[in-house]
Structure formats: structure tokens, C-alpha cells
Amino acid sequence: MTHVLSFLHDPLLHWFRSQPNPPTAILSDFFLGWTQRLAAQLSIPRVVFSPSGALALSTIHFLWRTMSKNPNPDDDSFPITFHGIPGSPTFPWYQTSSFYRSFKEGDPVSDSIRDGFLGNMASWGFVFNTFDDLEGPYLRHVREDLGHERVWAVGPLSASSTRAEEEAPTELMRWLDTCEEGSVVYVCFGSQAMMTCEQAEALGTGLERSGARFVWCVSATSAVPDEGFERRVEGRVSE
């Protein structure tokens, strides 16, 4: 998806240039690093918005700039140390960015994703969904790394909602209210991960055999277990 969105570059460039009063700046998500090239072509500033924190983005930029490798592909626990980031944190290979771990040299999609993340570093400024008391040292590190002070912490932010949404109990909330505290397993892999049929079947089997109640968030494009799964776990599952 990140790569596919980059195909909007030319249409957006044409749209900008056709406007009598075009926008004077671009605010875009850190997954849309390709918009940095668009901003440069239009001679306007771009501000990167990161819904995650400064430490997370610092580790991503570190990986793409150093191209750190796991010498043993069979060892997902191989430690990667992020030198230069405050505290020199170390994380196992499997906890690093999935975009980075799946990178293939010479592959157009991989190269596009890498160029996008590196392009973020050339932006005019950064806005993070975090706050100074939580990530002060890492925010200062980003400012030092970029060489300017145009780095802002505006969090913690929450998803917008209407008063009706806040007041009206949802079917899920009503179901959760019938469950004992701490008795429900929450399963979610985010919007970027898409399970294969084999992975969905394995996870479904594990949940079914556990006997636990659970909430499983599944995207429209992700695989799901067989049709009989919902019937077999009826009464202890909410979608």
C-alpha cells in the first residue's frame, strides 16, 4: 500500500500546478515519504506527521541509513544495537520494522519504501504523537539528527469521535460488559499486517482450543479461518 500510494505523485503534481492558489505546504504521514520529492518539486515545505513516537522513528531511520544486517536469517532473536540513539537501545531482529526486514536489494517496491523513509529526513519539520516528559531525550536526538529545532510533540492524541459515538454503547462494549475482568483476549496485528490463510487457520485453532473469550480484529483484506470457525466459538467471540 505504501508503494502503491506513490503512484499519486504525478496526478498530485499536475493538480498543484493547475491551481490558481495552490497549497503552500504539505503535511503528510511518515509512511508517505514520497511526498517529500513532491514538496521539493513545488518548492514548498513538507512537515512529517508520525502517529508513533520519536524513539520508534529514530530506530527506523537508523536501520535505513546503516542497512544493518542479521548475519543468521534463521535467528530472529539476533540483537540489533542502535548506536547514537540515547541509551543505545538493543532490540531483537524480529522486533525491528517489518518493512526493513522484508527489504530486497534491487526490488523496485523495496527501493521505493527505503527512499520514502530516507526522504522523511529531508523534510522541513516533524510532528510526533508523543510528549516531552515521555520522550524528551529522543525528541532532542531527532532535533540534533536533523540539525534544526522544527520538531514538535503534540501528543498524546486520540481518535476523533462524535458525541453520539461516545454515548451510544456499541454491541462490542455491551458484550464486553458481560465478561469478567481480565477474561477476554484481544487479538490485533494492525493495519499493515495481512495474514495468510495458513496463519489465520493456525491462530484460529489456537484461540478455539484455548477456550478463552476473545476479540479478533480482522481487516477486510486479511485471511480468516474456515466458515465453521464462528459457529464453533459462538458465545465467546466478538468481531
TrEMBL record:
The organism is Dioscorea zingiberensis
Its recorded name reads Uncharacterized protein
Q: Which family does it belong to?
A: Belongs to the UDP-glycosyltransferase family.
* Record GO terms (molecular function): UDP-glucosyltransferase activity
